[in-house]
Design goal:
binds zinc ion, 3 helices, two-stranded antiparallel ribbon, alpha+beta, globular, single chain
Length: 76
């Protein structure tokens, strides 16, 4: 089982819906893994405050421009 190493279709995911829009609540996920997060599927999901372009850029740099998903099951 290996972790996701996609470097394309990257999106910045909110770790916690109520965690705000700062860098500490940001996680880089590829589109596939992002769709597999529970909040994505929840019809009652309220979109949290969007990340600013500068936070997205910092999150991508921190992640090395790679998906940070480590579940290993949704990435195949
Ligand atoms: Zn991924
Ligand atoms: Zn994944």
């Amino acid at each position: 089982m290996s972790r996701c190493e996609r470097t394309w279709d990257l999106e910045v995911h909110h770790k916690r819906v109520d965690g705000g829009n700062g860098l500490n609540n940001a996680m880089v996920l590829c589109r596939t893994c992002h769709k597999n997060t529970s909040s994505w599927c929840d019809p009652n999901h309220r979109s949290p405050e969007p990340f600013s372009d500068s936070i997205k850029k910092q999150a991508l740099e921190r992640a090395g421009n790679r998906c940070e998903c480590e579940k290993g099951t949704c990435c195949l």
